[in-house]
Design goal:
The structure holds 3 protein chains of 3 kinds.
Chain A lengths: L1 H20 L3 H26 L8 H16 L5 H25 L4 H21 L9 E2 L14 H24 L1 H11 L1 H6 L4 H27 L1 E2 L1 H5 L1 H14 L6 H20 L5 H16 L3 H15 L1
Chain B lengths: L3 H32 L6 H19 L7 H24 L3 H23 L14 E4 L2 E4 H23 L1 H11 L1 H6 L4 H23 L11 H14 L4 H22 L1 H18 L10
Antiparallel strand pairs in B: 1-2
Chain C lengths: L3 E2 L1 H4 L19 E7 L6 H20 L11 E7 L4 H13 L4 E4 L3 H12 L5 E3 L15 E3 L4 H18 L6 E7 L2 H13 L6 E8 L7 H10 L3 E5 L2 H13 L6 E5 L7 H6 L1 H4 L3 E4 L7 H12 L6 H20 L4 H9 L15 E2 L2 E2 L5 E6 L2 E6 L15
Parallel strand pairs in C: 1-3, 2-3, 2-4, 4-5, 5-6, 7-8, 7-9, 9-10, 10-11
Antiparallel strand pairs in C: 11-14, 12-13, 14-15
The chains are: A mainly alpha, B mainly alpha, C alpha/beta.
Chain lengths: 318, 290, 399
């Protein structure tokens, strides 16, 4: 536990220092978007890596967080930081609702994945038709730079805020690694029947996991809105966010503390590198990105972090 | 507003649109039923097949229906190769790896198409593209009627292959009990690859029937993926009859839903059914008890 | 002579003010960011826009560059917005650090919202080429300039002209059905139209929203048969527009007019070429060039010689880039603040869009207007306003 806390603290200090050392918009934006992806991945990892329930519809929580953040400010006149609390709570509520339905009916594996996908689509279609989400037009936040408005004039403020969220997610993950709840969750993941036999309630445990997973995802949605100030049903509930979360988590290493952060950083760096090197021919950079993904899965099956752990174990055993 | 002269054509339209969905879903249900993998690359594979049909028509003037004997085996070969040499190697026995590798393949396919064919939407012009046939008060487009016939034929062909041939027996054995099948000497890797190949071959057929009434661009596959998954779940994973009937049913639901609720909101009907089936009867209409 | 570079080859930020001219040495080039969604869902439009910008830059350089800066050439720095706002904003950061003096882009309204805002942080001038959402120029950003019209203007012009055409023909049309795509541009346009049309005596019988992509329009056409509107108003992107009109053709449905507002395929040479029968008679209120200006025919020939279609993305971005070059010339420097000042005071008239001399108020060119075109005798002809008329309108299509 202490090792985890030390490494999280070191990470936090190192990242927090970056905006103090450089004013480069490129670096700070890259850092901000990587942290954002890391948050999505770390949140997904709670349910997917530690809970063993793969969700294909995490955009559901992202979009709910973003829309509640927007509606609370635009129609409720709430301060953005207060709206953030409401956004996270709403995302959590949706998480518990979907979890209750799915787990109650015993959905697992691909069926669970597909039902989350379906829910995300339903929300997307409803958001397109309902006036208070702006329907197809979407919602736009008026420009009002200022820390009190959760709209920082430069990227540093956003970087620090997102760093705070990521640290919170990492702390939750660390808690999962060392707590009884976490042990129960992993027991349910590895063998649900055996866990039930020793008195663990799989339903309760999974519901807790989905709540812990959906809240930070909602925060990511609210954050997106504050940075880009525009949200529409495709951005909010479309599959892009769901895919980004799960790919980064899996590539980095499922069920590990640093996997999601590593996966997010690697994938972003890969995307940037391919875009810089091959950007003049549209599509070529994505072909390379996809090929690298395929190759990584073929040759580093436990994800990058997993591969790192295997190497470390092999070294120890020599 | 909705009397028989509107409802009847709407249902017929739903059936013909659903037939194409069924063709797409047939391949997916085979892949899911046997390999138990969610193939993220299914939509992109349909796109590849559509481009193949387009290319044969624009380069050689080959009619899409006449292209069937070329495109279907070509897609089969592609599927076999992809599964045998990439997906199989990548799986390492874990589901999440298959997810990622098929996702990676989808990205590669979509962007290769973008590189080669550019981003314009392509259509083909045939003498029957705009032709219609009158069935009662309804005017049904000829390509869609042909698609309906094609879906029935494809489903029948698959049922024959899986029910009557040795390969089919091997496929059913592997789908039911992989280790046992291996023990009795079945080459599981080969069966997996054959199944994946057959799945993509169905997409080849779907493409030949779809292009005359539709179009192709690098993103076209993504519009069919979710519907295909819904049909597979509704019909029962691994059931061809289920995919066919499920496809027709979803087509009609989409059509009537669009008529009643508006095209945009009407899509909700599909996903509501999807969720209801998953929760209440996950084995679908014809699947084995889960 | 064209010079195209990507970022990595640029290296560190270079001062764009140039080196002192010594005995005929070339002045430093002016870097211009060309930012469009060239991959992803909007790839086709993005690539057309990019083509327009690059052709404009080639033409400016071939004509001697920016004269007031000693013939300094324009150098395009290409960016891919990947069809998402966040990628667009990230590219703006890169362009800023590579030392661009201005940005031209980013086609889609949602992406423009993000890119103009990111550019505003650095007081980087951003010329919006297409992006029709009115919010883009209503946020009080001093760096944002839109050469063309927004959808409010387009909707108003469309409604006015429909009224004029209808009255001139003896009011044959009374009812309208609007079919629009579900996102920002379609919904916004449909909202405006539904509000304005009743005031002119039209009954909006139905407003149908559809998804992107929509695989089949048979239902919508069935509803059309049931509703039987006099006029069908589509507002959607190319693929869906084409499918809709093909389906109407198939089902033998021909209203008194198909009157598009920002219709994706309504004034498209591509659609005309591929489906001449279905396209015949369609009216569009859309971005269009001044048909009386000879330069347009020459440009169109050059574009078609490259195997491309001469679409609005090309000529909008081409002229937007020309606007920027004119501002650079008047600013006499590549300094961002000077360029913004020059754009604010711009009276650029040497262009082939039907806007007259530019006049920016809060970043919107006041003279910007769409034109009404109709597909007649196998070609797209301007029908309204009279100043640009090439052919008389045929309205209604049938009595």
């Amino acid at each position: 536990m202490r090792a985890d806390l030390l490494s999280i603290a070191a990470f936090a200090l190192a990242v927090a220092a970056v905006p103090l050392l450089t004013a480069s918009g490129v670096v700070l934006t890259f850092l901000m978007m990587t942290l954002y992806a890391a948050l999505l991945a770390a949140a997904w990892n709670v349910l997917g890596g530690y809970g063993g329930q793969f969700s294909f519809g995490h955009a559901l929580f992202f979009g709910t967080g973003a829309y509640v953040q927007a509606i609370a400010q635009l129609q409720g006149g709430l301060n953005p930081w207060l709206a953030l609390v409401l956004a996270c709570a709403s995302a959590g509520a949706v998480g518990v609702f979907v979890g209750a339905l799915s787990f109650r009916y015993g959905l697992k594996g691909s069926y669970f994945a597909l039902v989350t996908l379906a829910f995300a689509e339903v929300f997307r279609i409803v958001a397109l038709s309902v006036p208070f989400t702006g329907a197809g037009v979407g919602l736009m936040l008026p420009l009002a730079p200022g820390a009190a408005n959760f709209q920082f004039a430069d990227r540093a403020g956003f970087v620090w805020t997102m760093l705070g969220f990521v640290v919170a997610a990492l702390l939750v993950t660390s808690w999962l690694r060392h707590s009884r709840f976490g042990a129960q969750l992993q027991a349910v993941r590895d063998n649900e029947d055996a866990a039930r036999a020793v008195g663990v309630s799989p339903l309760r445990v999974k519901l807790g996991a989905i709540a812990l997973s959906s809240v930070p995802t909602g925060a990511a949605g609210a954050f997106y809105l504050q940075v880009f100030q525009y949200i529409d049903p495709a951005i909010a509930y479309g599959p892009a966010v769901s895919v980004e979360a799960l790919v980064a988590a899996i590539v980095g290493g499922l069920g590990t503390l640093w996997g999601p952060v590593l996966g997010a950083a690697l994938l972003h760096a890969l995307a940037e590198a391919t875009r810089n090197l091959f950007g003049s021919l549209p599509g070529l950079n994505m072909v390379i990105y996809g090929s690298v993904l395929v190759l990584v899965v073929m040759f580093a099956p436990r994800g990058v972090f997993g591969a790192g752990e295997s190497l470390r174990d092999a070294w120890r055993r020599r | 507003m909705f009397d028989a002269t509107i409802l009847f054509p709407s249902v017929l339209n739903g059936l013909t649109t659903g037939a194409v969905y069924a063709l797409v879903a047939l391949g997916l249900t085979l892949i899911y039923g046997v390999l138990h993998i969610i193939n993220f690359a299914h939509g992109a594979s349909l796109m590849v097949a559509l481009y193949a049909v387009y290319w044969l028509k624009s380069r050689f003037g080959l009619d899409p229906y006449l292209a069937l004997p070329l495109v279907v085996p070509a897609m089969f070969a592609l599927g076999y190769a992809l599964q045998r040499f990439i997906v199989n190697r990548a799986s390492h026995g874990k589901d999440e790896n298959i997810l990622l590798v098929t996702l990676g393949l989808a990205i590669v396919m979509e962007n290769l198409a973008l590189l080669v064919f550019k981003s314009d939407t392509r259509t083909i012009d045939t003498p029957y593209t705009l032709a219609t046939v009158a069935i009662g008060p309804a005017m049904i487009a000829v390509p869609k009627l042909l698609a309906f016939a094609g879906a029935l034929a494809a489903a029948a062909a698959l049922l024959l292959v899986v029910g009557r041939t040795d390969l089919g027996r091997a496929i059913r054995a592997v789908a039911k009990e992989k280790q046992g099948a291996r023990l009795v000497g079945i080459d599981v890797d080969h069966v997996y690859a054959m199944s994946f190949g057959l799945g993509l071959a169905c997409l080849g057929a779907a493409a030949c029937f779809l292009l005359p009434a539709y179009y192709v661009n690098p993103q076209v596959g993504s519009g069919f993926v979710l519907i295909a998954f819904t049909i597979v779940v509704l019909g029962g994973m691994g059931s061809f009859a289920g995919a066919l009937l499920g496809g027709l049913l979803i087509g009609v639901v989409e059509s009537l839903g669009g008529l009643m609720l508006g095209e945009s909101l009407g899509q909700v009907g599909i996903f509501a059914i999807f969720i209801a089936v998953l929760l209440l009867r996950p084995q679908g209409l014809f699947g084995a008890r889960v | 002579m064209s010079t195209r570079r990507t970022f990595l080859k640029q290296g560190a930020a270079v001062s764009a003010l140039g080196l002192p001219l010594v005995g005929g040495a070339q002045p430093a080039p002016v870097k211009v960011g060309v930012l469009h969604p060239v991959t992803g869902a909007l790839a086709f439009s993005g690539q057309q826009c990019r083509e327009g910008a690059l052709m404009a830059i080639d033409d400016i350089n071939a004509g001697g560059g920016i004269k007031s800066m000693g013939g300094a050439k324009l150098q395009a720095l290409l960016g891919d917005a990947q069809s998402t706002p966040q990628a667009g904003a990230a590219e703006v950061e890169k362009m800023n650090e590579a030392g661009v003096s201005a940005i031209v882009g980013a086609f889609a309204s949602a992406i423009c919202l993000a890119t103009t805002q990111a550019a505003a942080k650095y007081n980087l001038p951003h010329v919006v080429d297409v992006g029709v959402a009115d919010q883009i120029v209503e946020r009080g950003l001093k760096n944002t300039f839109r050469f063309g019209p927004g959808y409010r203007t387009c909707a108003q012009v469309a409604v006015n002209n429909l009224h004029v055409l209808n009255v001139a023909a003896g009011r044959p049309a009374k009812s309208v059905m609007i079919i629009h795509e579900e996102s920002l541009f379609g919904s916004g346009t449909a909202n405006l139209l539904s509000r304005e049309l009743p005031g002119y005596g039209f009954e909006v019988k139905e407003v149908v929203k559809h998804a992107n992509p929509t695989r089949d329009f048979n239902n919508i056409v069935l509803r059309m048969k049931a509703v039987n509107p006099d006029i069908v108003i589509p507002a959607n992107y190319y693929n869906e527009y084409a499918l809709l009109v093909r389906t109407m053709n198939q089902q033998k449905l021909s209203p008194k007019a198909i009157y598009s507002v920002l219709g994706g395929a309504a004034s498209s040479y591509k659609f005309l070429k591929e489906f001449p029968d279905a396209a015949d008679g369609i009216i569009d209120c859309n971005h269009w060039f001044n048909p009386k200006d000879k330069r347009t025919a020459a440009l169109r020939r050059r574009v078609e010689a490259k195997g491309l279609f001469f679409t609005y993305e090309i000529f909008n971005t081409y002229t937007a880039t020309m606007l920027l070059a004119d501002a650079l010339n008047r600013a006499k420097s590549a300094d961002r603040a000077a360029i913004i000042d020059a754009l604010e005071k711009s009276t650029f008239a040497d262009h082939f869009m039907p806007y007259g001399p530019t006049k920016f108020v809060n970043g919107q060119n006041q003279g910007a207007q769409p034109l009404m075109t109709q597909v007649l005798k196998g070609d797209i002809r301007v029908i309204v306003p009279r100043d640009y008329r090439e052919a008389d309108p045929v309205f209604p299509l049938k009595a």
